[in-house]
Amino acid sequence: MTEMHSGLLTIIATPIGNLEDLSPRAGQAIAGASLILVEDRRHAQRLFQHLGVQPKTMALHEHNERALAPQIAQRIAAGEQIALLSDAGMPLISDPGFPLLALLREQQLPVTIIPGPNAAVAALSLSGLPSDRFSFEGFLPAKAGARRARLAVLQSESRTMIFYEAPHRIVATITDMAELWGRNRPAALCRELTKIYEECIRDSLGGLLEQLSQHPDKVRGEMTLILGGAPEQDPGEQEADRWLAPLLEELPLTQAVRIAEAQSGMAHRLLYRRALALTSGREPA
């Protein structure tokens, strides 16, 4: 661990629901920092009140982080102890902070971390799905067309996948997944983790849709969606998908197959079969 004796940025994980999950070391670092970088000052106040501290804060979010990064780096270079928090969980994981970290890396300024709660890893552990290999996909695009295009690219992903999603889009997202990947794909929907109404629904994509339809009260709270991976493909299918996926985002199936065949030299029959699978969510017989 890097000692906090000179200019330093400390990345601090914060609770994803239950404030008692904050580590003692995280609390000490927050109390000792000269400046706390937060996503939302109002949201951070609840944590500060829990700790009994009122530190100096600066809002750092997606709309200002690139502009503020040089100023923050300069303050660290001058010897300030600065801490980076997100609203919940581990900073930088689908949260602000990357432009600042990239700049500190470029300038070789010191950074340390106090690890802790993370919704993605917590949900994966709860899901009952394979956890030896997984892919964190974060938030899918909000618009339906872009979301479906991204899901088509992930059609043949064999690792367990982790997604974050907003309550008002969760049904549309699961519907798209079921249409593209099949209703039988194993899944788990984890919501309100570490809170009073924590729940992890373990089912297929089709089963999740039925449960959410029957119990609309479940469509609320912070949501993490875990999806089982696709069956392992042979190398030829993987290569075909690599050529086809970006083409199918923009072109009709037959045109995408024709271009992929011309550019890759792969067999038309294989490319056409994989294109059908990528666009229909069904493995052709």
From TrEMBL:
GO terms for cellular component: cytoplasm. InterPro entries: 4pyrrol_Mease (IPR000878), 4pyrrol_Methylase_sf (IPR035996), 4pyrrole_Mease_sub1 (IPR014777), 4pyrrole_Mease_sub2 (IPR014776), rRNA_ssu_MeTfrase_I (IPR008189), RsmI_HTH (IPR053910), SAM_MeTrfase_RsmI_CS (IPR018063). The gene is rsmI. It comes from the Bacteria. GO terms for molecular function: rRNA (cytosine-2'-O-)-methyltransferase activity. Residues 9-206 form the Tetrapyrrole methylase domain. Belongs to the methyltransferase superfamily. RsmI family. Keywords: Cytoplasm, Methyltransferase, rRNA processing, S-adenosyl-L-methionine, Transferase. Its main location: cytoplasm. Catalyzes the 2'-O-methylation of the ribose of cytidine 1402 (C1402) in 16S rRNA. NCBIfam families: 16S rRNA (cytidine(1402)-2'-O)-methyltransferase. It is found in: Cytoplasm. Residues 235-278 form the RsmI HTH domain. It holds the Pfam family TP_methylase. It comes from Acidithiobacillus thiooxidans. This is Ribosomal RNA small subunit methyltransferase I. Its EC number is 2.1.1.198.
